[in-house]
Structures are given as C-alpha cells and as structure tokens.
Design goal:
With about 170 residues, the protein is an alpha+beta fold. About 45% of the residues lie in helices and about 10% in strands. The chain has a 4-stranded mixed β-sheet, with helices on one face. A hairpin with a 3-residue loop joins strand 3 and strand 4. About 25% of the residues are buried. The model has no long low-confidence stretch (mean pLDDT about 95).
Length: about 170
Amino acid sequence: MSSAYQLSDATRARFDREVAKYPAEQRQSAVMACLTIVQQEQGHVSREAEDVIAAYLRMPAIAVYEVTTFYNMYNQRPLGKFKLNVCANLPCQLRDGQSALDHLCHKLGVEQGGTTADGLFTVQKSECLGACADAPVLLVNDRQMCSFMSEQRLDELLATLKAHAAAEKN
C-alpha cells in the first residue's frame, strides 16, 4: 500500500527513543507517544500516518485508529491554530456550558466543530475536562484550562489569542 505520509529520519529516531522505553515484546505501548510526535510535527494525525505508525509498531492499523479516535487530544484533520474544546458534560451544561459553546460559535461565525476562515480557531464540544466546580470550562490546545467562562471571559480570551497570533506574525 502506498502512503502519502513518510517517516523522516528525525521522526523515526524519536519513535525509536519512545519504543526503547518498553520491553521489545511491548513496543505497541509507545502508540500514544508516536501519535503525539506525528501531531506535533504535522498538526494532526492523518489516516496514512496511523497506518505508518501501525506498521512501525507491528500492530493492526485498526488498533492505532482506535486510540486516535478515543482520545480527543489527537486531531484527525487540520484544525485552527487555537483549538477550543468546550466541556459538554452535565455539570458544565447546568452552569451554562452550552451557552458558552454557542457564544463562541456565534462570535467566531462557525458551527460546532468548525474552523474560522482565517484558520485561527476551531471550536469543539468536549467530554468532561475534570473541572466541574469551575464550570463552564474549556481547554485551549489541549493544554490550558480556562474556568468560569462567562461571555465576557470568552470574549477576553478570544482577544488575547488573536493578539498572540498577530504578535507571532510580526
């Protein structure tokens, strides 16, 4: 099977370092690390990359796909520079989580799961982020938790992220 995704020597070396952390018969344990490496380098994990990872780790491609689709930290398509995951579980919903999600979508002119035309923001519904007492919450780029996200705080966050992106361009 021909693949559009190819492992570079540098990526293979990073994979090798991760696999070396496990006994030889458990090399598949490095699957999450390998997926993370690809995402760091490509911005997302394509189906072709999943197949390459599966071959490298000597595991079925479906097993890699199951990991990619189970965890929302793996992007299966290119997303905006800022991925905003808004918690959709009941505690957040009871404290205006859906309103926060709707506000972001309206403010940015996108539907849930959509990316702004300028490629800056992707807004997604997320499962529990583990900060129920701080609801509504959202996670920026799978790293920064934002709590008590009123419409005012959401607007301030968007302004801050836009300013950060503009400063990076200069």
